[in-house]
From TrEMBL:
Coiled coil: none
Residues that span the membrane, as ranges: 26-43, 55-79, 99-120, 127-155, 167-189, 210-235
Keywords attached to this entry: Membrane, Transmembrane, Transmembrane helix
Protein name per its UniProtKB record: DUF6534 domain-containing protein
Organism (species): Lactarius akahatsu
Metal-binding in keyword set: no
Annotated ranges, domain DUF6534: 177-263
Database matches in Pfam families: DUF6534
Record keyword Mitochondrion present: no
Top-level division of the source organism's lineage: Eukaryota
Database matches in InterPro entries: DUF6534 (IPR045339)
């Protein structure tokens, strides 16, 4: 009876191999928990979003759920069933599929979402269309390189080593980073142009919030992507890159949900409070969308009344340039959310606290 060949001894630097795998998986699961909460918030607040947008959101979530399960299978293979087995640790197992392939699909979908948002906010400008095409090309190139590299890793059972895999990994990560930089730069350019035109009403403030959030989230994904890129370029024979690349997909999916859920603050945002001396009225004007009486809270010796403006608050404003039109992802549910740069124009007089 032949005995199995002895496994290679565990090297003294085993932590350099296992730590990035473990930390990347833990951060991946943490971000999945954040994504679940974001999805609940989205489902509760925006059940009326158009079908294509909801299809994007739920598809990304299902893909991320699959990726999370595969990440768990990888970790079980490396550190549980393969505990103490160095050959298991040197095998990528399913990570070639769940990190570069699934991650690139998610990043491609999210970047296309922001490309559409840029094009709409720019008023469908032909110049911005060129920028959008460049961003799409960067995203597609990154996705193709990532998918090819993932299949290569799975078939050859090895991590990034050799010239081919290194080039594919660098193309994937640099394409994503360049796309994020162009998205953030386009948003900043559009915001600067709006400010130079002297916009100061609520719609411009809402646009500023959208742009700031987009830039901040894209800076986060760009930073993690560049860190991964540098680790692959400088230390291709080490596993350090597995930690940041494991969370890239989750960062993109959370970016999508955060951007959509930000409409909650925009929808409820514009509030103006007028204080009055004792014995007179104090009221709060709110952009909370309704034409009916909403809420009255009496506080002696004055009263605080929350009322709403009428549907004519947007009269004369070109909202298609602000929120992209009734059917765009930037719309703040215009049929139910009405705001104004003159918050007291259509307020109804309720009564007097001295009555």
């Amino acid at each position: 009876m032949s005995t199995p060949p002895p496994t290679p001894p565990i090297p003294p630097n085993i932590a350099e191999i296992t730590a990035p795998m473990l930390l990347g998986s833990l951060w991946n699961w943490t971000l999945y928990g954040v994504l679940v909460v974001q999805l609940y918030v989205y489902s509760y607040n925006f059940p009326g979003d158009r079908t294509s947008l909801k299809l994007l959101v739920y598809s990304v979530f299902l893909i991320e759920t699959l990726q999370t399960a595969l990440t768990g299978a990888d970790l079980y293979y490396w550190l549980v069933s393969g505990f103490g087995n160095l050959e298991r640790l040197t095998s990528p197992h399913l990570s070639g599929f769940d990190v570069p392939i699934i991650g690139s699909i998610v990043s491609l979908a999210v970047q296309f979402f922001f490309v559409y948002r840029i094009w709409v906010l720019s008023g469908r400008s032909s110049w911005f269309l060129i920028v959008c095409v460049i961003i799409c090309l960067c995203s597609i190139t990154a996705a193709v390189a990532a998918c090819y590299g993932g299949v290569y890793v799975y078939l050859h059972k090895k991590f990034v080593s050799g010239r081919v895999l290194k080039v594919l990994a660098l193309t994937w990560l640099s394409g994503n980073a360049l796309g994020d930089i162009l998205i953030a730069g386009s948003m900043l350019f559009h915001l600067g142009r709006r400010r130079s035109e002297g916009g100061g009403n609520f719609s411009d403030h809402a646009l500023s919030k959208v742009v700031r959030l987009t830039v901040e989230t894209n800076v986060l994904t760009t930073t993690v992507g560049i860190i991964s890129l540098l680790m692959v370029a400088i230390f291709p024979d080490k596993r350090w890159f597995t930690c940041p690349t494991a969370i890239l997909g989750k960062l993109y999916s959370n970016t999508l949900l955060v951007s959509l859920n930000n409409r909650i603050s925009l929808r409820e945002g514009h509030r103006a409070v007028v204080k009055s001396p004792p014995g007179t009225f104090a009221f709060t004007a709110s952009s909370q969308p309704t034409s009916e009486f909403m809420h009255v809270e009496f506080k002696m010796p004055s009263a605080a009344v929350i009322v709403a403006g009428s549907s004519e608050d947007y009269a004369g404003q070109d909202t298609s340039q602000i929120f992209g039109g009734q059917d765009d992802v930037e719309s703040l549910a215009m049929s139910s959310a009405r705001t104004t740069s003159q918050p007291y124009r259509n307020l109804a007089y309720i009564g007097s606290s001295q009555a």
